[in-house]
Each structure stands twice: as C-alpha cells, then as structure tokens.
Amino acid sequence: MKTTQADSRGEGGQTLLIFVLALTVLLGMTAMAIDVGLLFEDRRHMQNTADAAALAGVAELPGNPAAAKSQAASWAAKHGLSSGEIKKIEVRTTAYPNDTLYVEVERQFSWVFGRVLGKRTSVVPASAAAQVGSLSGTSNLMPWAMVLGDSACLTPTGTPIVDTNCSVKVGSGLGTTGWYGALDLDGNGGGSSEYESNINDGMAQTVYCAQGQTEPECQTSTVDALEGNKTGGTGHGIDQRLAAEPSAGCDTNGNKKDDFSEVFGANSGGTPKYVVTCPSSPRIIIVPIVTLNGDPVKTVTIQGWALAYLQGYTCVGATTCSGGKGHWEVQLTIVDAIYSQSASFIGTFNPLSSVAARRLIE
Question: Residue 219: CB partners within 8 Å, gap ≥ 6?
Fold first, then answer.
C-alpha cells in the first residue's frame, strides 16, 4: 500500500510537470502568434500607405514632378509616417516621360513577446509605383452614361458584373427622371447632329477625368445631360460606326461581324478576365460611369469608366421605330470598369486623348 501511494504521488508530480511545460509552450506560441499578427498588420498598413501615396502623387504627372513628390510625401505623413520612414520618392519614365511615381517606405517593428527569443526589431518595408495613362484608343468614347447604382452592369458599389448585358442609352427614360442617358460630351448644346457624330467617331474635344482625379490636361469631371431620346441620331450614329466592320483580322468565322469572342480574348493572367484581341473594332466602346446631379438631370459627374462591347440597338415602344413612334435603346456587354486602379484598357499617356486615368503598376 505504501508503495502504491508513493507511485501515485510520483505520477501526479510528473503530470504537473508535463502540464507546466505544455502550458509554457502554448503561451509562447500564443505570444508569438500575437507578435506575428501585429507585424503583418504593420506591413499591410505600410503597403496601403505606399499605394495611396503613389496614387495621390501621380495625379500631378507628367506635368509637375515636384508637386507629385510633395503630394506623395504629404499623403504618407497624413497616414502616420515620419519623414525618416519615407525612404524614396522618385519620378520615373515607364512609357511616357515622367509618367510614373515610385514610393518606398520603411518602418522598424518592435517585437513584444519575441524579445524572449532574442528578437528586438524587424524592418517592415513597402513600395509602390503608380502610372498615369490614357484609355487606350482615341475613338471609343461614347456619349452615353452608365449610372452608378442604377445599372444592371454594375453592383451598387460600382464593381463591374463582367459579361452582363445592359442598356446605356435607355428607351423609356431613367427611373423617375425622364432622362434617356444621352450626354453632351463637349458642352456645346448638343443636338442630334453632334450627338450622332460623337457616336460615329468616338471623339471628344474635352479631356475628361473621374471625380477626385487631377490628371494632366484634365478639364472637367462634369458632363451636360442631353435632353430627348435622340432616336434618329442614335440609330444613324451606330449604323455608321458599325459600317467599319468587319475589322481586319477579326472576322475569323466569316460572318462579316466582329463577334465578342473575336474582339476580346481570355486573359491568361486571370485578372482582368479579358484582353483586347482586336483593338481596331468599332464594337469596343468606353462609357462614362456617372452619378446624377439633381432631378431633372441637367448634369452628371463622372466617377469612372466602363469598357464594353457594343451589341447594337433595338426599338422600344413601337414595332419598327418609324413614323416618329418609339425610340432606340442601346445595349452593350460590360467587359471591365476602372475608377483609379489598373485595367487592361489603360494605355500610354496621351496629352491629346479625351480621357486620362491612373493605375498602380507595382
């Protein structure tokens, strides 16, 4: 009996020792997990700050490199970085002189629990590069609006619902506003003749940018709404535009039309979903993504840009839209959308382009 009691006490002591050792390891692992979590949080903050600073500064390029550097530094400071943590801000050339801003930041992370393992501090670096560019092509901007929050092609927050079909020049009027979605791109009073010409050639004399962006040469983010449903101008303009197809090298199936699968191909990189494989096609269009300024709609504000495939137009409210009855409704398929981030349809900065945008490239 005495032997049994001694053995029990011994086993109890061993169990307690094992428990203490296991608890020490568990607490150590928990402490390190907390430290590592704080490290990664610091790293995310530094990367987000570098991205934001690069995008803020690149808005001044290529015209004002000094202002671009100052703007980036100011943005980084507002996000809690000291001057010593801003290691490098450089204006570089990617595709056009002074079109890129590079930002490099660095912070010392102080370990809390890691000190017991000899860890004191670790460097947390981050870098970003942003480039100013123009929407590829100069003959694709359409005088129609995709309304943020009221389009089947966008989520309520503006994310493109790729491959979705929707109307931009609407047939029955937008909601309760009675506006049909047509835009007076150059603010000259519009009219069917100018509107039709805008559809046909896809050009605008005014350089537009999204709200809050100040790209070089940007003149305005506000566009006048064009009254009326512009029945004749819509149909004639689209007919003239599509008379240019089939585009050279695009009509692989011989149906005398640039089909969606011939104009856009799958992106091997995965994001964005498509790349342009037939850049000369008149089916490629860029439509402003806008918010409305009042009711009735007199002006709209550009928030971003939608890249789309022009499906065509159909008659709404009548059988043939002849004899002054009915009106045309324009349908498209959305391919992508940008606001201030990268997209495959941003190209080299062109000071003569009607649209400018910025993107992160690193």
Answer: 206, 207, 208
CA–CA distances in Å: residue 204 to residues 92, 142, 199, 208, 276: 29, 9, 10, 9, 22
Q: Are 324 and 176 in contact (CB under 8 A)?
A: no
How far is it, in rounded angstroms, from Cα 302 to Cα 195?
18
- DSSP helix, strand, coil percent of the chain (3-state; round to 5): 30, 30, 40
- Residues 232/195, Cβ–Cβ less than 8 Å: no
| Residues 53, 111: Cα–Cα separation, whole Å | 27
Least Cα distance to 341 among 361, 315, 322 occurs for 361
Q: Assign 247 to helix, strand or coil.
A: coil
Q: Is the pTM of this model over 0.85?
A: no
Q: Per-residue pLDDT tens for 35-81? A: 666 667 878 888 888 988 988 888 788 888 999 999 999 999 988 88
Contact status, residue 234 vs residue 169, Cβ threshold 8 Å = yes
Q: What 3-state class would DSSP assign to 25?
A: helix
Low-confidence ranges of the chain (pLDDT < 70): 1-39, 109-121, 135-138, 175-176, 189-190, 213-217, 269, 271, 323-324, 340-346, 351-357
All residues at 6 or more sequence positions from 158 whose CB lies less than 8 Å from its CB, including other chains: 148, 289, 303, 304, 337, 339
Rounded Cα gap, residues 239 and 254, in angstroms: 20
